[in-house]
Amino acid sequence: MAYSGNTGLTRIIKAAQYSWQGFCAAYKHEEAFRQEVWIMAIAFPLALWLGENGVEKALMIGSVLLLLIVELLNSAVEAVVDRTGMERHKLSGRAKDMGSAAVTIAILNVVIIWGFMLS
User: Fold this and answer.
1) pTM listed for this prediction
2) Where is substrate bound in this sequence (predicted)?
3) 10 Å Cβ neighbour count for 12?
């Protein structure tokens, strides 16, 4: 990307605006992301209540945040692949499948961490 000319506080403010736009776009257009945001809204207070110490709370909350991060990256990959064309191509399918696999692993990570913390 070309240099925007923004520096200091202006660059930070612009970056925050772009990040918020990305969050809003994912929430508006991605059902899975919406579901995971609602899971996060439930999981955060639960983690604070159920975690016995700071490490447990951080692991429980961090695993859900990681899931959201992976979902955002998967959605970004899907958007770029779809932008380049709707025709089927094995590399496009592979990219989307790998993104989906990453989300599945992130979900498994949440299940494992919460399972250990709550057992």
Assistant:
1) 0.87
2) 11, 15-20, 32-36, 71, 100
3) 11
Residue 78 counted as an annotated binding residue: yes
Output Rg (C-alpha) for the chain, integer angstroms. Answer: 17
| Domains delineated in the chain | 31-118 (1.10.287.3610)
pLDDT value, residue 55: 96
Question: What's the token pair of residue 115?
Answer: 């399972």
Q: Is 71 tagged catalytic?
A: yes
Residue 82 annotated in ligand binding? no
Catalytic residue among 31, 52, 56, 71: 71
Exposure string of 67-97, with b = 16+ CB inside 10 Å and e = fewer, is bbebbbebbebbeebeeeeeeeeeebeebee
- Is residue 17 part of an annotated ligand binding site? yes
Arithmetic mean of pLDDT, 74-96: 88
